[in-house]
Amino acid sequence: MVPLGCLSTDETLQPRVGRMVPYREQGAVAARSDAHVGTMRLALEAGSTVELEPLLAAEVGARLLVVDGHHRLRAYGLAGRSMVPVRSEKMTLSAAVIVSKVANTDARALEMHPEQRRDAAWQYLAHVTCQGRQPLPPGESLRTVAGRFGVGRGTVARMLDRLPGVVASAFAEAAHDPGTGFPRWRYVREQGAGWADMEQMMSADALATREAERLARKLGGLISDVRAEVLNAALRILVLDTATVRDPDTAELMAAALDVDVTDF
Fold this sequence. Notes:
By secondary structure, this protein is α/β, with parallel strands linked by helices. The chain has 3 domains: 1-91, Conserved hypothetical protein from pyrococcus furiosus pfu- 392566-001, ParB domain (Alpha-Beta Complex), CATH 3.90.1530; 113-212, no CATH class; 226-264, no CATH class. The chain is built from 11 helices and 6 strands. The protein has helices spanning 23-45, 70-78, 93-103, 114-128, 142-149, 153-162, 185-189, 195-198, 204-223, 228-246, 248-258; strands at residues 2-3, 7-8, 55-60, 63-68, 83-84, 86-90. Helix 4 crosses helix 6 and helix 10 runs antiparallel to helix 11. It starts with a strand and ends in a 7-residue tail after the last helix.
């Protein structure tokens, strides 16, 4: 049992990168994450003797860094617990980065988005093959890697084919994994594909603006022949759905745009 305040997190040890998730799916992924934390919080609040599965942590110098269990850590904090069960081991930060990618794709963990799983597998392969300069180590195969990360064997094979030709300096800094310093699979896979290639150089705000423009074009086509009262009623229904099911913050923003009070719903 470790005091909650003794645990630290580091972005290099969190493979659930929101940037890897298509923008239109980020809200759903965040909602699943919050619901998962909420369920664990309720379990902890049900009784003081209830404990969740121990977090995995890496002892890196004087720091105790969470490798697996970020959701559990949040749940313990929200439940007002001061002590957290932890299993830890001394290792380097670079080793902890790879351990985090394997641990977070375990079947017991909250399911990662397919794009996040593929990137974790890619970074793992880059590490164990010295970025394609060596074959897979003994005991590893297309099947074992595919099974561990929940990706297709064909995908693993394509990754191994691409690794030797990757020039990391050809990619913008935003396209690199902050832990390994190696380009992410999405950008390697889509290199030279126009917009997909440009995304690596775009900020989160720029990506959001791009998605908003796409949505505006779609909405424009849908509402061009809709009466004003029907459109207003549809938007109010959407506010209600968003407030009660998905994202209260987004609902509040939408309500402000419609000049209504979200608490009326």
